[in-house]
Design a protein that fits this description.
There is one protein chain. The chain is mainly α. The strands form two sheets. It has a two-stranded antiparallel ribbon. A hairpin with a 3-residue loop joins strand 2 and strand 3. Helix 15 runs antiparallel to helix 16. The longest helix has 35 residues. The chain is globular and about 60 Å long. InterPro entries: MFS, MFS_dom, MFS_spinster-like, MFS_trans_sf. Keywords: Membrane, Transmembrane, Transmembrane helix, Transport.
Amino acid sequence: MTVLDDTQVSELPPVEQAVAKTEKQPSVFYAWAVVILLFACYTISAIDARVMTLMVADIRQDMKLDDFQISLLQGFATVVLVAVAAVPIGRIVDNGRNRSKLLAGGIVLWCLATAASGLSRTFGHLFLARVGVGIGESTLGPTAYSLISDYFEPKRRAFAISVFALGYPVGGGLALVIGAYVLKAAKEYGPAILPVIGLVQPWQMTFFIVGLPGLILALFVAMIREPKRHAAPTAVIGVERLTLRQTVAFLVQRWKVYSALIGSVSLLGMLAIGTAIWYPTFLIRTYGMTATEAGYSFGILMIVCGGLGNLTGGWFSGFFMRRGHPGANLHIMTWVTLIKVAPLVIGPLMPTATGALVLMGIATFIGQGTNSVALASLQDITPSRLRGQMTALMLMCVTTLGMALGSSVIAAVTQFIFHDDGALRYSLAILPAIVGPLVALMFVLARKPYRNAMIEMGEWNEKK
């Protein structure tokens, strides 16, 4: 990875010359401050997306819904239009100069959409509100990973991304912890009558409370300074912007590495997100826990185990790469995927809630080790001017399989195969037993094309 020097700047079109000459690379302190701010955004987005997990029973009762409809609200609704919006957003990230302004607009959209979820009176209205949440949150990944990759070199990139990616387990955990207490307080207060809005139920009030605070973050995000774009070797891509046709040609030439990496990470997303969405409900149904108890227990587990796992994966990546192992990221993902299968399968079958939570904690710690490493791997083999689009493509696939299929597959197995709500534990055990070994095999098959892509980007010495 190289930064544009004076010679390269002189070869740019006039407009980009002016940009390159005026941009100043922020300090290390500023770069880490941006990572912390982006982490806060990720935390808020996870809270807004996941808080609904605790309100399944209340929403089902008020709207007369079944598990499959709930799965559509928790998963499919948040990705139904993301598949259309993600790549165009990625192109804006790659070709624009205002990545921070784009993200600020996305934050405003998903926060307002979360609050609008509390206005819903019908399944259709709630579905549209959750679609709005998904579209707004689709700006976060491409923008954040693009900015971080331009702030940090490869040897430190995975750890920086792991700090940002802490937002997923921390936000998901806080969604359950904070959401549990907000929902409890709202239930104790009871239904309320608000000006203009009218009568609102406790679950609706919870959406209002968790949705609006994120608007404050949008103001700070809009002020983030742009880092310099890092140039790729001219053999890979020129320094000028690529047309859509050139972008497609670039991907077609390297389809083996991108299809293997994106496909395997997408399946992991299906496993992780689907399990996380239904685990609190499983705890409630199987062990008789209250929503508050399940939310608090599972939330703390995600924050502690998920957070530590995320940082551990990023640290190991940097540790091995600094010692001359540029292919470390793919090896880490392979072994982590294999190791976490056992606790994921056994956990839901445990006779006690404590046993189920302990094994889920182990699986979460191990599994989150691949989160930042996977995204860092994608950045390492992709030129700066394509990172937004490739990140958008990966996240689109992850959310499509994870949020839409992961949630719905588990619900479908429970409802249409077992025909018993109490059999949710078996649906949770079946998914990792199938997906885990398949993903590990895909990582093994990706090693050679990944190595070739790293060599092409100048990140792998051919002698190694």
